[in-house]
C-alpha cells in the first residue's frame, strides 16, 4: 500500500483517529513540559548556561576534584591532607583548594519572589583571589569585610559601602561590602539582572574564610593545573587512583565539572524526576493507543479481509496501518509540543511562591522529545493491533465472522471483562425493582461485550495499579515514622536545620551554652562525609553525634550490645545484616578524602527515625575530617524548678530562649515534639503529593483513552442504540445507559487496579528495610475515595458519547 493510500484512509477516518491523536498529544505535552520545567529550573540554578561563572572560574586546562555526595549542603569534604597527596602526583604544577558552598544574605519577608523560598538570599562563598578582579572598591581585610560580584549585589540588595547581615555556618554576622568584583567579563552594573543561583557570589578575606565557614583545614573542591606538556585527561587518569572512589575527577572541558555542589545536586534531582515522569507518561500512552487502535480496527475486519482476498500480503496491511499511525503521531507531536511549552512554564511558576513571571524556553532536547515520544508512542501502540488485524483470514470478507470485537488477550478478557460483568450483575441486584431496567441493561451490555469492556478498562488500569501501590507504601512509611517519633524520644523540643546553608555544630552548641539555658541533655545529629566499611560491604548513610548523651534523650530500642562512646559505632539491625557485623566486630569509618578510623560495633538498634541506620561518635568523625553539617538536635529541659514559676512557665521561657539562639543561624527552626513529628512525617506526605500529581497525569491520559473507546463504541453500536429509541426508550434512558456502562467500566478498573496495586504495595513492603517500614497500613479511606473518583470520572468522560447516543434518530434503525 502506498503512502497516499494511508493518507486517504487517515483522512476518511479522521474522527476516529483524532481520538488517538488527543491521547498522544497529551503524552507529548506532559513529556515536553517536564523537560522544559527541568530547563527552566536549570536556568534558575545556572547550570548549562554560557554566562554562568561556575563554568569560567577554572582554567580551561585544569582538572577539578569534588566530593561524590548526593547532599546539596555538606560539600566541605576535602581536606589539606588530600591536597598534599595531589601535589605529589607526577605532572601536577599547582593544586589549590577553594570554597563554593552556599551562604545567605538575610532579607525581609517576601523579598526576592523570583526565587523559591528556600533559595532566597542564597549566594556562593569564595576567597577573593585570582581570577577575581576588582571593578571598584578594595579587597576585603578581616572577617567583617566582603566583596560581592554583580549577582551577589542583586541577590543581597547591597552596594559598595553598605552593611548587610550574612547567615554563615558559624552564625549570623554583620559585614561591610568594600568592593565589587568581576570574573570572566561579568557586567559592571546590575541593571535589571536577575542572576542564576550559580552567578551570585560573596568573597571573603582568604585568611578568614575557613573560620567563618567552620571549615578550617578543609575545602569544597581542588583545582589542579597540569605541568608543561601534560595532557589534562592523562593527568585526570593519574589522579583517580590517588584520591580514591569518593572523589570525582573531571577535566574542565565538561561545563558541569566545576558546578557548585548545591547546584549540581539540585539539578540532578530535577533531571532524574523529569526522565521518570516522561517514561511513565510514555508507558501509559502506549497502552492507551494500543487499546484505542484495537477498537478502531475492530469494525474494519471485513475491509482488511477483502484486501487480503484481492492479494494484499500481511506486511502490506501492517505497513498501511502503521502509515496511518505515523500520520497521527506526527500531527500529535506538533500539537503536543505547542501545548507542552506553556504547560512547562506554568509548572515552573508553581515552584515559586512570589509574583515574578516565568518565561518560556525551547531547547533542543524538547524538540527531539516531541517527535520521539509522539511518533514512537503511536507506532509502538499501533504495532500489535496492526499485526493482529493483518492476520484476518481472506474468507472473512465473504462471511459475517468479522463481528467488530477489539482484539484483546483472552486472559485479560476473561479476568477483567468478565470480572466487571459480575460486578455489574451484583450491583443490579441491589437496585430497587422499579429502577432496575436501565442498570440491568447496562450490566448485560458489559457482560455481553467482555472484549470491549476489557479494552476500555485497561486504559485506566495501569494508572490505578500504581495509585494503589504508592498509597499503601506511602501510608505505611508515614505510619512507621509517626510511631517511631512517638515512642523513641523523651525530648521537650527539637532544633532542626532547614535550608541549603551548612550549620556548624560546635558554633551552635557554643551559643546554646553561652545562653545559660536550663537544659538537662541533648542528642544531636551531624551528617558524615564518608562511609562505614566492613570487609567488602559499605554503607553511606552514616551520621555522627555524642553517643554518650543519646540515651538520656532518645530511645533507640537497642536490640543487642549497648551504647558506648568514642571509638564505637551503632548500626540498625538491617545494616548489621547487610554488613555482616555484630556487637564486638571491627569496622572502618572512611572519609571522602580517604582518611580512615577503626571502630568497634557496640550495639544494634531498631528505632531509626531520628538518627538513621548508622551512628558514630562525633569525635571519631572530626578526627578524620568527615563531620559535615549540623542536621537536628533533641533537647530535654531541666527538671529543676524556679521558685515562683510553674514548670510550664519555665519550659516556655526555655523554649523562647532556644528560639532566640536558633535565629542567629541560617534557617534553623525550633519545634515542639508534636510539631517535629508532623514536620518530618509531612516529608512523606510531600513526596506522595508529587507522586500523586505524576500519577494524575497518567490517569488523565487513560481517561482520554477511555473517552475515545466509549465514543468509538457508540459509533459501532449506533444501530443498536437507534433501535432502543425506536422501541420507545427516551433520550434520557439511552444517555443513562451509556453513562452507567462507562461508570461500571471505571468501577471495575478501580476494583481490579487498586486491589492489584494494594497487594503489590503490601508485598513489596516486605522487601523494604525494616527500619524504614515498621508497620504495614492499607489506607482504606484513600482507596475508597479514589474508587468514588473513578465513578465520577466515568460519568464525566461518558458525557459527550452519551449525548451523541441519545441524539441518534430512531429512523436510523430502519435504514440499517
Number of helix segments?
A: 25
Oligomeric category: single chain
**What distance lies between the first and last C-alpha atoms, to the nearest angstrom?**
31 Å
Helix fraction by DSSP (H/I, runs of at least 4): 40-55%
Mean pLDDT: 77
The secondary structure category is alpha+beta
Features:
alpha+beta, 6-stranded mixed beta barrel
Note down, in words, how this protein is organized.
- This protein is an alpha+beta fold and 816 residues long.
- The protein contains 25 helices and 25 strands.
- Strands 14, 15, 16, 17, 18, 19, 20, 21, 22, 23, 24 and 25 form a twelve-stranded mixed sheet that branches. Strands 4-5-10-7-9-8 form a six-stranded mixed β-barrel. It has a four-stranded antiparallel sheet with strand order 3-12-1-13, with helices on one face.
- Helix 2 (14-45) runs parallel beside helix 10 (314-351) and helix 14 (450-488) packs across helix 22.
- The chain is globular, with a radius of gyration of 33 Å.
- 49% of the residues are buried.
- The model is unreliable at 48-58, 188-192 and 254-259 (pLDDT under 50).
Summarize it.
With 816 residues, the chain is an alpha+beta fold.
Amino acid at each position: 500500500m502506498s503512502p497516499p493510500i494511508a493518507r486517504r484512509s487517515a483522512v476518511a477516518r479522521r474522527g476516529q483517529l483524532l481520538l488517538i491523536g488527543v491521547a498522544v498529544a497529551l503524552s507529548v505535552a506532559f513529556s515536553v513540559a517536564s523537560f522544559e520545567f527541568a530547563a527552566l529550573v536549570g536556568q534558575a540554578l545556572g547550570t548549562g548556561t554560557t554566562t554562568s561563572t561556575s563554568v569560567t572560574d577554572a582554567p580551561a586546562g585544569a582538572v577539578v576534584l569534588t566530593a561524590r555526595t548526593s547532599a546539596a549542603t555538606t560539600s566541605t569534604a576535602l581536606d589539606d591532607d588530600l591536597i598534599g597527596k595531589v601535589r605529589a602526583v607526577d605532572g601536577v604544577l599547582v593544586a589549590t583548594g577553594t570554597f563554593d558552598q552556599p551562604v545567605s544574605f538575610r532579607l525581609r519577608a517576601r523579598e526576592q519572589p523570583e526565587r523559591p523560598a528556600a533559595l532566597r538570599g542564597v549566594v556562593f562563598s569564595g576567597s577573593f583571589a585570582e581570577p577575581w578582579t576588582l571593578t571598584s572598591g578594595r579587597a576585603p581585610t578581616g572577617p567583617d569585610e566582603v566583596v560581592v560580584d554583580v549577582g551577589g549585589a542583586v541577590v543581597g540588595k547591597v552596594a559598595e559601602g553598605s552593611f548587610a547581615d550574612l547567615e554563615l555556618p558559624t552564625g549570623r554576622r554583620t559585614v561591610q561590602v568594600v568592593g565589587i568584583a568581576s570574573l570572566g567579563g561579568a557586567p559592571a552594573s546590575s541593571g535589571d539582572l536577575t542572576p542564576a543561583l550559580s552567578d551570585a557570589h560573596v568573597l571573603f578575606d582568604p585568611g578568614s574564610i575557613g573560620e567563618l565557614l567552620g571549615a578550617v583545614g578543609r575545602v569544597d573542591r581542588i583545582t589542579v593545573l597540569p605541568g608543561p606538556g601534560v595532557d589534562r585527561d592523562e593527568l585526570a587518569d593519574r589522579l583517580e587512583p590517588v584520591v580514591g572512589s569518593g572523589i570525582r575527577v573531571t577535566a574542565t572541558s565538561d561545563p558541569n565539572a566545576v558546578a557548585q555542589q548545591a547546584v549540581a545536586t539540585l539539578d540532578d534531582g530535577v533531571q532524574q524526576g523529569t526522565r521518570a515522569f516522561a517514561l511513565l507518561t510514555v508507558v501509559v500512552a502506549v497502552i492507551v493507543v494500543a487499546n484505542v487502535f484495537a477498537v478502531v480496527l475492530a469494525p474494519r475486519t471485513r475491509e482488511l479481509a477483502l484486501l487480503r482476498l484481492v492479494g494484499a500480503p500481511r506486511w502490506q496491511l501492517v505497513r498501511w496501518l502503521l502509515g496511518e499511525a505515523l500520520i497521527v503521531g506526527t500531527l500529535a507531536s506538533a500539537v503536543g509540543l505547542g501545548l507542552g511549552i506553556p504547560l512547562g512554564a506554568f509548572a515552573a511558576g508553581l515552584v515559586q511562591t512570589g509574583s515574578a513571571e516565568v518565561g518560556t524556553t525551547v531547547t533542543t532536547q524538547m524538540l527531539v522529545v516531541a517527535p520521539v515520544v509522539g511518533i514512537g508512542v503511536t507506532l509502538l501502540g499501533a504495532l500489535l493491533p496492526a499485526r493482529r488485524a493483518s492476520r484476518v483470514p481472506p474468507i472473512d470478507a465473504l462471511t459475517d465472522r468479522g463481528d467488530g470485537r477489539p482484539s484483546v488477550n483472552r486472559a485479560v478478557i476473561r479476568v477483567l471483562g468478565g470480572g466487571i460483568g459480575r460486578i455489574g450483575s451484583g450491583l443490579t441486584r441491589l437496585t430497587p425493582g422499579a429502577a432496575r431496567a436501565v442498570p440491568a441493561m447496562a450490566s448485560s451490555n458489559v457482560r455481553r461485550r467482555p472484549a470491549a469492556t476489557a479494552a476500555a478498562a485497561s486504559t485506566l488500569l495501569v494508572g490505578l495499579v500504581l495509585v494503589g501501590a504508592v498509597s499503601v507504601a506511602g501510608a505505611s512509611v508515614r505510619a512507621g515514622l509517626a510511631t517511631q517519633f512517638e515512642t523513641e524520644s523523651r525530648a521537650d523540643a527539637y532544633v532542626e536545620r532547614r535550608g541549603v546553608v551548612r550549620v556548624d555544630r560546635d558554633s551552635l552548641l557554643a551559643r546554646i551554652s553561652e545562653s545559660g539555658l536550663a537544659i538537662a541533655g541533648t542528642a544531636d545529629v551531624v551528617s558524615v562525609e564518608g562511609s562505614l566499611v566492613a570487609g567488602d560491604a559499605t554503607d553511606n548513610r552514616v551520621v555522627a553525634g555524642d553517643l554518650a548523651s543519646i540515651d538520656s534523650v532518645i530511645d533507640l530500642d537497642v536490640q543487642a550490645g549497648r551504647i558506648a562512646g568514642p571509638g564505637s559505632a551503632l548500626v540498625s539491625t538491617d545494616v548489621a545484616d547487610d554488613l555482616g557485623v555484630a556487637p564486638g566486630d571491627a569496622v572502618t569509618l572512611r572519609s571522602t578524602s580517604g582518611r580512615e578510623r577503626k571502630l568497634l560495633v557496640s550495639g544494634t538498634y531498631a528505632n531509626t527515625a531520628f538518627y538513621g541506620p548508622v551512628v558514630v561518635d562525633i569525635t571519631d568523625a572530626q578526627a578524620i575530617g568527615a563531620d559535615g553539617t549540623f542536621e537536628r538536635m533533641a533537647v530535654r529541659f531541666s527538671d529543676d524548678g524556679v521558685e515562683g514559676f510553674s514548670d510550664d512557665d519555665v519550659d516556655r521561657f526555655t523554649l523562647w530562649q532556644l528560639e532566640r539562639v536558633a535565629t542567629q543561624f541560617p534557617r534553623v527552626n525550633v519545634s515542639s515534639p508534636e510539631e517535629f513529628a508532623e514536620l518530618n512525617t509531612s516529608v512523606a506526605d510531600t513526596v506522595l503529593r508529587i507522586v500523586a500529581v505524576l500519577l494524575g497525569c497518567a490517569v488523565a491520559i487513560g481517561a482520554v483513552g477511555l473517552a475515545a473507546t466509549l465514543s468509538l463504541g457508540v459509533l459501532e453500536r449506533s444501530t443498536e442504540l437507534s433501535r432502543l429509541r425506536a422501541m420507545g426508550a427516551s433520550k434520557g434512558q439511552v444517555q443513562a445507559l451509556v453513562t452507567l456502562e462507562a461508570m461500571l467500566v471505571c468501577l471495575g478498573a478501580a476494583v481490579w487496579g487498586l486491589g492489584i496495586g494494594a497487594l503489590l504495595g503490601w508485598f513489596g513492603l516486605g522487601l523494604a528495610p525494616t527500619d524504614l517500614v515498621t508497620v504495614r497500613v492499607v489506607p482504606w479511606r484513600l482507596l475508597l475515595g479514589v474508587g468514588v473518583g473513578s465513578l465520577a470520572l466515568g460519568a464525566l468522560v461518558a458525557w459527550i458519547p452519551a449525548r451523541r447516543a441519545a441524539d441518534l434518530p430512531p429512523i436510523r434503525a430502519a435504514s440499517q
